[in-house]
Batch of 2 targets.
Target 1
Amino acid sequence: MNIEIALLLGQDGLTNGAIYALLSVALVLVFAVTRVIYIPQGEFVAFGALTLASFQVGKTPGTLWLLIGAGVVVALVDLSSALRSGQRRHIPRIVGWNLAYPAVVAGVIHLFTPAELPLLAQIVLSLALVVPLGPMTYRLAYQPLAEASVLVLLIVSVAVHLALVGLGLLFFGAEGSRTPAFSEGSLSVGSLTVSGQTLWVLGASLTLIVVLALFFERTIYGKALRATAMNRTGARLMGISTVMAGKLSFLLASLIGALSGILIAPITTIYYDTGFLIGLKGFVGAIVGALSSYPLAAAGALLVGLLEAFSSFWASAFKEVIVFTLIIPVLVWLSLTTRHVEEEE
Amino acid sequence: MQPHYLLGGFLVLLLTVPQIASEFHVTLLNYIGLYSIVAIGLVLLTGIGGLTSFGQAAFVGLGGYTTAYLTTATNLPAWAAFLGGAPWMGLLAGIVITALVALLLGLLTLRLSGHYLPLGTIAWSISLYFLFGNLEFLGGHTGITGIPALTVFGLVMMDGRNFFYVIWAVVLIAVWLTVNLLDSREGRAIRALKGGVVMAEAMGVDTARSKVVIFLIAALFGCVSGWLYAHLQRFVNPTPFSINMSIEYLFMAVLGGAAHVWGALIGAGVITILKQWLQDWLPRLLGASGNFEMIVFGVLLIYVLQRARDGIWPILARLVPQPVVVRAVPQAEPLPRKLPPDKGLVLLDARKVVKRFGGLVANNNMNLTVKSGEIMALIGPNGAGKSTMFNCLSGVDQATEGEVLFAGRDVTRLDSREIARLGMSRTFQHVRLLGTMSVLENAAIGAHLRGSKGVLPAMLHLERGEEARLLAEAARQVERVGLKDAMFEPAGSLALGQQRTLEIARAMCADPCLLLLDEPAAGLRYLEKQALAELLRKLRGEGVGILLVEHDMDFVMGLADRVVVMEFGEKIAEGLPEEVQRNPAVIEAYLGGVE
């Protein structure tokens, strides 16, 4: 290996690592707020990328039907519980978010031909379509079990993951898609050529992380999420709705997931089930951060990206083996350094 | 346990099915059997132990690949040549390898909180899947073909109908071993993992070991299933050992009834048949081919977890009328007892104990002694730090400063399990019982350290002699505290006062020389309190030292030999009950002073 290849691999690793870092931050967030180990995060990566790809080839993405269907189910569940508890004032909001909003998105897709829109509009439309699926998933799968043990929530996560992967196959078929790069240009520094998409990924990741940091530090909702993460009961006593916190954290996670997918789609071909492995690499990062530290999780995820890039050069067939075995020394370290008191049911 | 005629009917069915069913159905039932073996392990791990693994298919793969490689390899090195060729050697090697891997993974993750095991097993199972697919000597993604058939008692198992008996015999053995294990001293320790770790440790149970044990058993069941699979199919490739299959195994366990051994069979059956059926119909319905049954499984599982978290088995069990079993009170030769300590010997000596939680000082400079054959009462207003002191003394928590001597040894840094071994036993202010276990079994957990038989004898029920003596001891103590009539009721059905007395019975089962009782009389009626006082006096007469936290002053003053009064984490008075009652500082602490 010479320096040029090393730089090239480093660039690859950093790009993927940035994506994993975004995902690992989202995973830590969801775990801290809801105690959910969010395995389905990867499916949002695939949904984001494949929805955008569908728009670009002039197809209506199947995720639209999922949005409409999930919206109807959420509306039915919420309306029946609102009527039973006599809280009629919630009805407009329920109808608005779960029935009217998907209808509006469907209308926009129908009126404008998305394939002819500029890229930015396509991306916004993809996000508008995929991101609300996050909180809807929370409402349907997790919220009725919000007080259950981590173990039960984890099994739910796996069930959601399976269902979403199956739906992904149904919507997008078994073929993969790759979207064109955001910009054609590239940057030359000495002998190193940095592709435009790499810059997009790094720039977008950094921006998103800064925005998230500001959100958590400066806004009341960000502070509410941090409070819930620290102490659920305490937060609830202070008037913070844990349901709201759960939905908000899932909203942020699905935003991060879908955006990651859109960013990475020009770099690697995305299949309906690619998201799982991408998400799990985010998890390896998150575990480096012991599922609690954002900076450590992000650093761990970058390490995963670099390790993956370099091992694909030396032993490409064993790339995944090496990446997922990284978790072992991390677990050794964690188990030597933490004194743990088991959660009692 | 279900009525015997149901079990008998099931056995008859198993014997006749291969003779009458079609080839297709026998194959289906063979798979259900193979999956059941794995699911039984997961029931033990997940439903009963409260842990979970997404790596079971990888263990199945280890079992399958080990035997496949060893029975087909032509160039084994000389030192391993004895393992080659024979399926039974393949099983042996598979078991050894699986045990090593499971032990390593277990030791790595089980000291961390519960969710690291599943995450670790996801990663390990993906690694192994890619490893199987990329290692040349394992045939890569095409796998290994030409695996020899299994020979059992000289019979060559060439077709599925013969193999049916082998598989289902293994299923029944797995059920038998697991049911046996759960009904034993080790089994009670395992059942305490879910929701009773602090209590179990205080009773001397090594809960980390119990976790490793069930993970190991579940992995080995997987390995055996994989070995059978390899010799049934006669070829292996990586696909059936992927993470998706691991997830399906977990679904089987959860759907069938995660806490019921027989539920594993139901879950495996339902999922396998449903999958077959959905794979026929869904592609036709949706007009595309693919594993769409995943969508149905996912949604179904979420629904089950939300609506019937205990799975199908309890629902089925309710349909069968439960026979009225007259259970006899266990009788057996009493367990050996420790020699009572000399009267008046200082058992417990706490010196300048300080406990801080961050900036809050819960105990400050606490000195305390308890002698054998005396009742020492620790009293004080709410929030004085009495329970914290108890936790520091019994090793549930550790003192920040100072030292605690027990039975002549420095126990300040020991954990509760080691302290229990030295002869201290305790009850908890917030009752820590296992609600679904019977009163008798709850008490028997206290006797954990008085038995020594391990997991293997328990699985084979070779420890019945010791078990009978443990249960008889538990029954004696339950009777002694006056709960004889409720002996076989679930502990969760008792009134709070009775639950407290059951905690005392459990503590007494350990044959302690020092008993720590945290508010034993709370929630008791007058007559029950008198009976409790009588019991404690009797224990005192036997030489047991008793340290008591209590709010009921009549109870304390009539019973205690000495009293220590705490307020705001510090000792404000110590002495005979009459002295303490006259002490102005105590009166001020309880009634408020005159400004």
Target 2
Amino acid sequence: MTAPEGPVAGEPDEVLDCLGQRCPLPVIALARRLPELPVGAVLRVLADDPAAAVDIPAWCRMRGHDFLGTTGPAHHIRRAR
Amino acid sequence: MIPSPVYLDAATAAPLHPVARQALLAALDDGWADPDRLYASARRARQLLDAAREAAADTLGVRPDELSFTANGTTAAHSAVLGGLAGRRRAGTVLVHSAIEHSAVLHAAERHVAGGGAASEVPVDRLGRLDLDAWSRAVAGPGVALAALIAASHEVGTVQPVEAAAAACADAGVPLYVDAAQTVARMPVPAGWSVLTASARKWGGPPGVGLLVVRKGTRWESPWPADEREAGRVPGTVNLPAVVAAAASLRAAAADAAAEAARLAPLVDRIRARVAAEVPDVEVVGDPERRLPHLVTFSCLYVDGEALLHALDRRGFAVSSGSSCTSSTLRPSHVLEAMGVLSHGNVRVSLHRGTTEADVERFLAELPGIIADLRAQAGVVGL
């Protein structure tokens, strides 16, 4: 089960810089910020910890948000509800 | 007060089986000589080694001349992969393996690829079950020398469809290597494989003994420098006292396997249900039905895996984790990654013949509070 890879159309509404942070910190930062954005907003999380590529899509699945894809260290999430 | 220790990491190493201890002590006095020499003490050692091989082979349902003892489970896995590829080099250079093999198998695959070979990885689904269609296509591809499948995941407990995978291999004329480290002496040995390995410390044997079984007719060639011991499959002298203990405990553990599975599987069911119900934001992973009787894995959202292991250790609980912060490479478990499940805050609990219902109850009673404390300390409550 690999995450969808590739660029996301358009620019995100906000960028969260978690480069250098180890998991679970990027997921915690994502969980704090995404609910503050409007439904439909796209957040780009920059995270280079290898676990982020696994845990950010898993968090989206557990919380019912849309995981849009990953390009390098950039993970894209849309608030779905 | 220091809490009494509860050891819940049998999938790494089970506590020494009493039969193993007894056999080990006896063999230390009786089995120190080299079995290949021509004097009385050597003949005694040879008798012990032959008897151990016959007992282990009988327990697994194979011929004694098909079974070799190795220095540990890892070297058995390396020998299985590299020897299986070497013996079939005229057929091709491709190794097909699942995405959730043990790291010993994956490291042998890396060595093969670095030497000019190729590897083809077959995915699993979210429960950790092999994609059988993808497997069947992969083994039927051109130039496949060997296929490797773990009998049951050592990390999440999902039992793999070995016999169906073996049938696909047979159709393609490809030998199958099965890493049975977690199933030997716990579940029946599946049919259809050509090479099988196991590790004694998983069933309560001593550390430092592995099993390598190569079925008659399999094209397998030792990847090591030549040595006449163990039918030419394993170089160097075996640790005979440990081998004697491994074989004796294998027979004892296999004889009790059905009863132990019937006792432990409901305890694992209880852990799966209670953790999911009583710990918020937890993902219990692995197949709930087709699974090992003694092993359960779960991941706790927002919790640091290393901090969780230390907190559990302070309360006397020994468990392991697939979280990246607990590995020397700082990478998450490739098994959790392949399944697409949460990798942080991960705990693997594995039970053994000494595990009691009271041990499990104490773990279940203390776990929710330990996780709540860690989340409170990290300021992530309510996220």
